[in-house]
């Protein structure tokens, strides 16, 4: 016959009950955190691919605030000098109707440009534009410059971006403009 010590049984019951309460609290806590994460995810930005047009992809982004942004993006076909780490450079053109911005040209390289330097964009070795820099990004000076660059890119077949890094390295990136006009038409239609 087994004999039970009442104190031992009571201790086991208290410990098990404490464990159960702790486990219930953990489940409640993780459920609460999960619901906050899911609610945040539901309000997160929503990006939709409008299409791939040869060397350009077009997207529509609806931010958590409801603001719509349409942009097209491409990566360079070549980078030089080959001995340098270039980061992940890309070129975008975007429309932001809520802010009345159209044809905003942005070149991002993934490393900082030399302070107060300018990036040179040359379309088909004919049209030359200069972009101001800040950090690892470069933009046109104003709406007129953005519109002129976009117009030249629509008519061109390739462009070269020339820049200088914070370390003083001269860099060049060649982009294809194949599919540029179709991608631009797609973002213009999506963000009227």
Task: Throw out a few tags for this protein.
single chain; alpha+beta; Immunoglobulin-like; eleven-stranded antiparallel beta sheet; 11 strands; 32% helix; disordered N terminus
Summarize the structure.
The protein has 192 residues and is an alpha+beta fold.
Task: Give a verbal description of the structure.
This protein has 192 residues and is of the alpha+beta class. The chain has 2 domains: 1-44; 46-190, Sandwich (Immunoglobulin-like). It contains 3 helices and 11 strands. It has helices spanning 6-43, 143-155, 180-190, and strands spanning 46-53, 56-62, 68-74, 78-80, 90-96, 101-108, 118-123, 127-134, 137-139, 158-164, 170-176. The longest helix has 38 residues, at 6-43. It is globular, with a radius of gyration of 28 Å.
Give the overall shape: globular
Helicity level: 25-40%
CATH topology of the largest domain: Immunoglobulin-like
Give the CA-CA distance, first to last residue. 86 Å
Q: Layout of SSEs?
A:
Layout: H1 6-43, E1 46-53, E2 56-62, E3 68-74, E4 78-80, E5 90-96, E6 101-108, E7 118-123, E8 127-134, E9 137-139, H2 143-155, E10 158-164, E11 170-176, H3 180-190
Antiparallel strand pairs: 1-2, 2-3, 3-5, 4-11, 5-6, 6-9, 7-8, 7-10, 8-9, 10-11
């Amino acid at each position: 016959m087994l004999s039970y010590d009442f104190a031992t049984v009571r201790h086991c019951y208290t410990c098990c009950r404490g464990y159960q309460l702790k486990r219930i609290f953990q489940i409640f806590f993780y459920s609460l955190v999960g619901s906050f994460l899911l609610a945040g995810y539901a309000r997160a930005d929503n990006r939709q691919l409008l299409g791939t047009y040869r060397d350009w992809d077009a997207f529509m982004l609806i931010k958590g605030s409801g603001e719509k942004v349409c942009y097209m993006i491409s990566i360079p076909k070549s980078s030089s000098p080959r001995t340098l780490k270039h980061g992940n450079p890309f070129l975008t053109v975007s429309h932001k109707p809520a802010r009345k911005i159209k044809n905003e040209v942005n070149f991002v390289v993934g490393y900082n440009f030399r302070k107060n330097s300018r990036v040179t964009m040359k379309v088909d070795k004919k049209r030359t534009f200069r972009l101001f820099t800040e950090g690892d990004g470069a933009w046109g000076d104003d709406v007129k410059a953005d519109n002129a660059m976009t117009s030249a890119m629509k008519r061109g077949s390739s462009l070269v971006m020339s820049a200088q890094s914070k370390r003083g390295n001269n860099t060049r990136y060649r982009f294809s403009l194949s599919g540029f006009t179709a991608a631009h038409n797609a973002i213009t239609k999506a963000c009227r």
